[in-house]
Amino acid sequence: MINAPPSDDHVIVEAQVRGYGFSPAQRDEIWRRWREGQSFSLIGRALGAPMHHVRQFLYQSGGVRLTPQRRSERHLTGGEREEILSRN
Fold first, then answer.
1. CB atoms closer than 10 angstroms to residue 31
2. 85 in any annotated domain
3. pTM for the full model?
4. Of the residues 34, 35, 67, 75, which has the maximum number of CB atoms within 10 A of its CB?
């Protein structure tokens, strides 16, 4: 999903990975079963989900689970940035 408000000088871009209706627990289960070498159809049957949803969910990441990104502690937080902007 790309979000770009037309009336503002700032453009916000958000990339969102489609979850295909899987809960966080189901996503963990998909990754666990995928690591074990289970097929798309077997994973889908275990979760009660269409096989093509499992396939597309895994396809989005290339079959590799991405680690959550964390901002370095050296970077300013959103609140700190806003405080600096309000001073100017």
1. 17
2. no
3. 0.57
4. 34
